[in-house]
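Q: For a teaching handout, I want to show students what a protein-ligand complex looks like in token form. Below are the inputs, and the small molecule is uridine-diphosphate-N-acetylglucosamine. Please produce the holo structure.
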Amino acid sequence: MKKILVNGGKPLYGNINVSGMKNAALPIIFACILTNDACTLENVPCVSDVELSLRILEEMGAKITRRSKTTVDIDTSRFEGGFSPYELVSRLRGSTYLLGAELGRFGEARVGFSGGCDFGTRPIDQHVKGFEALGATVTIENGCNVVKAGATGLHGASVYLDIASVGATINVMLAAVTAKGRTTIDNAAREPHIVDLANFLNICGAKISGAGTSFIKITGVEKLHGCNYTIIPDMIEAGTYMVAAAAAGGRVNVRNVIPKHMETVTAKLIEMGATVDEYDDYITVSRAGRLRHANIKTYFYPGFPTDMHPQFSALLSFAAGTSTVTEGVFENRFKYVDELTKMNANITCDGRTATIVGVPRLTGAPVKAVDLRAGAALVIAGLAAEGTTEITKVESIERGYDDIVGKLAGLGADIRMVEVPDEEGLRDAK
Ligand code: UD1
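A: Here is the structure, written as tokens, with uridine-diphosphate-N-acetylglucosamine included.
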């Protein structure tokens, strides 16, 4: 088992390159099921959720060829629907996209319950509502969601989502691109990865407009063809490194970003007293002096991203004054609080709000990456803390960060990955 060791207190200097966006890569990888042709995806992040998605497709008959570390060919001409490797599917939230993609290609899908980070219940009622509107039936059989189109196939429909769910918007898009007629999705999610998926599908021959607004229109086409596509940069990875720079101090250029996607993070860092300068495709972050408290409410895009919530809580833990962080998207995203508390943070939770009283400094401690962004928050806390922070359950972090240790070490952080004997690792992971 692996651990990340961070010796805090070193300012960061230099350039850090952001990888492709995990949450765009996953739906696009599963969207490749919709065409019989091969697709070439570039700027694919080397993270374990992506590896897992590719393995799922491979086990279901797709041919996956790695051209380079970040370029992959996906040929689903021999892909077989109707079953899915339960053990793999149950480790990944993005595996729900198999439902929409297989429904679009084969008119049916049988997919085991998906996994991913535990933020409380994560229902798929809005996905189901969308599939049913398109003429499919959805049942649960032996631990699987089973979706079946009617005898005449899927047809276009008006879908109003009660919640602007990313996953439901994606699944309805996947199912609707080859349905007969016109589909509209009202109250659609507006996240940049929705736009990226729509761009990919349109290059493959789909007719989607309005992605990035809350009203998406899809005119069904008979079939899609293959294409070459480059995934957009990961705004959450970029935001994490911007917060890391503000936490550790120094001056960092976060490269390969779309500054427009970073607006909420940039504004909050400036409010806290960091200096942030935007350029065409990079952002520079520096800090001199102590950061100030701030209040944050997460919400659907273009609101403050829930996936940046734990990282900002880490930063606010040692900012001057009292801050609040209110979670507006997920039922329970506060499991990281106990870990930050071990590092001397003063945080109390009441319902969906954490109150953070800034302490003069955090102190290193053995802590556990309870989920993906919680893990990133602990790395950030470790960079700023006095002494050594030992982070276990590193695999949570590897789900969504491409070489976080190497990238931060490249900025001068004292951070390394070590292998620990299994017994010690198991004790820590409990
Ligand atoms: C995706 C991202 C995740 C991010 C989240 C919000 C992936 C693989 N994951 O998750 O990193 O934190 O968007 O930006 O891209 N909901 C329902 N019914 C549904 C669907 C969702 O009630 O049918 C609720 C959820 O419980 C949650 C909220 O809606 O409270 C948002 O969920 P959603 O946008 O669907 O997030 P995910 O697609 O699961």
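A: Two things your students might notice: The CA atoms of residues 83 and 110 lie 6 Å apart. The pocket of uridine-diphosphate-N-acetylglucosamine is lined by residues 23, 26, 93-94, 122-127, 163, 165-168, 189, 306-307, 329-330 (CB under 6 Å).
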